[in-house]
Design goal:
Elements: H1 2-5, H2 13-39, H3 44-73, H4 78-85, H5 87-100, H6 103-122
Helix pairs in contact: 2-3, 2-4, 2-5, 3-4, 3-6, 4-6, 5-6
Amino acid sequence: MFSDLFNFEGINWWTLLGGIGLNFIVTMIFSIGGAYLAQNEGTAEFYKNFGSALMILLIFAGCILAGYVTGKIADNVPVKHAFISSLGAVVPFLFLAITTFNPIAFMMAAVAVAGNLNGGRLAIPRRRHTFPSNRE
């Protein structure tokens, strides 16, 4: 399964670029919102206590949505498109983790990949089973 994810055959590059951009936008919106909550005097104490868990949940949910949208747009390989488009969220988190030596940012990068994979799996079309009738 994983060897097929890293194979670039059957990739729609426009869909992939759109998915990368969508992941980047979702990540930046939640990151800027978290920075605002941390700096605001009214919410700073709440964010200090629950901010890491809240950000991880929001990034996971946002990346599920981005992976689902990317996977629905991709015709034949939705999981592959969702997985590769997770680079839009992973690269900023890895940059932040390396420059600030922050282990939470590494965890958020992994959560972003997991969210995109789950969203891509949700975008796979369901099979329609028809069972033969036993009436003769």
